[in-house]
Amino acid sequence: MKLFRYGLFSSLICFLLSGHLQVLADAVQPTATTDRAFLIYSIPHLQNWSITNKIDKTQTRLTQISIPWTAQLWLSNRTRMVLTQSSAISEFNLDKLGDQDKSELTLQGMGDIRLKIKHQLLDSLMVIAGTNFPTGKTGIDPETDEEEVLKHLFNDALDFQTGRLGEGWAFDIGTAYARQLAGITFGIGANYLYKNTYLRQLLNDPRRKVNYNPGTDISFTSGFSAGSVLQFHSDFTYIIHTRQTIRGTGVFDKEKNYFEQGPDLLVDGGITYKRQRLQLDIFGQLLDREDSSRPDVSKNNRLEIVDVNQNNRRRYVLRIMYQTGGSSTISATVEDKLLEDQNQERVASILSYYLDSHFQLANPIGLTFGLKISNGKMNEGQTRLSGYGCYAALTTGF
């Protein structure tokens, strides 16, 4: 019963903390160190995309090296503290096909530090509280055109590890509850995220700063899991966003509505087959966004701060995982992702192949690595995508 509850707790917490499903390497926690009182590790990621536009005959290459780190401290059997932070170097290269005209831009900096405390009040009830410390980079250098790199990092078809670095103060509190009835484990959860106002530069006018209020997020999650060898599971998440506003730095500047984001519905479901060392997962995900609007859209985004991609998303995943011995595992995955705009018009379609593994070298040392290869198209086939990503890390605990 506790194993069922733990599995559903993990699923609910993943939704509450991140708002999306982490399919593969992004969700890997070094299993070699789960019995340690203190754990610190980093799994650097390299991502590269090549985007070829057939209309204007250009090729854009985007490369990012992201270095996240995580520290976990078990204060007791029921209480765990988690610190996370990420730094990144991102490069943007634009080539005119058949020409010598090139443009190379770089954006680098540190991200915010996030603190989470997870406390299990009862076997079926967990409470989560967290704080975002504004240690990350929020400004951009207008002399180096860093805003051009930042815009591309927010393209939700590319799934970069690190987009916005600094986001100001934020506080959140949530809870998750799981209970088993008639062989089925049910779970519910809720989370409240408050994000404080902070100074931010306009992308289309980097020399000007405004007071940016990113709004508040309230999310509700429910899910169920049934079966042992053949397991059925599903999760539903509903996220409410309050409006985003900006205000100039002058005494008499008025607050303006920057963006109104409708609620999001995230539905995830799948089947897992477990037999001895073999595990087979088939699952899908649907992200449906309500209509959202920016009030100045007809004025060339004169209030632009970030690119807000409000695309619906569908994902279908097939994964095969095999336990080679002890805590060592290897898995292969195929993922088909489709993005659509608010008018149900196709924005992008991407097919990705993953190879992920974790090897127990010696207690408590483990090796984790992964590889991802992707191909796809955007803009009704006028733009071709190809990319790869990889990561590798040695992990240990104390």
Describe the structure.
- The protein is mainly β.
- Helices cover 6% and strands 62% of the residues.
- The protein contains two helices and 22 strands.
- The strands form two sheets. It has an 18-stranded antiparallel sheet that branches.
- Mean pLDDT is 80; it is low at 1-6 and 15-34.
Key descriptive features of the protein:
398 residues; 2 helices; 22 strands; globular; disordered N terminus
Task: Furnish the topology, listing elements before pairings.
Blueprint: H1 2-18, E1 38-42, E2 45-53, E3 58-74, E4 79-96, E5 102-110, E6 113-122, E7 125-133, H2 146-153, E8 170-181, E9 184-195, E10 198-202, E11 205-213, E12 216-226, E13 230-241, E14 244-248, E15 255-259, E16 264-275, E17 278-289, E18 312-325, E19 328-340, E20 346-362, E21 365-378, E22 383-397
Antiparallel strand pairs: 1-3, 1-22, 2-3, 2-22, 3-4, 4-5, 4-6, 6-7, 7-8, 8-9, 9-12, 10-11, 11-14, 12-13, 13-16, 14-15, 16-17, 17-18, 18-19, 19-20, 20-21, 21-22
What low-confidence regions span 5 or more consecutive residues with pLDDT below 50? Answer: 1-6, 15-34
Give the C-alpha Rg.
22 Å
**How many strands?**
22
The chain-level structural class is: mainly beta
Total number of helices:
2
Principal-axis shape: globular
* DSSP helix fraction: under 10%
Q: What percentage of the residues does DSSP assign to strands (E)?
A: over 45%
Our measurement of the CA-to-CA distance between the termini, rounded to an integer number of angstroms, reads: 29 Å
Give a short account of the largest sheet: 18 strands, antiparallel
Mean pLDDT, all residues:
80
The ordered string of helix (H) and strand (E) elements is HEEEEEEEHEEEEEEEEEEEEEEE
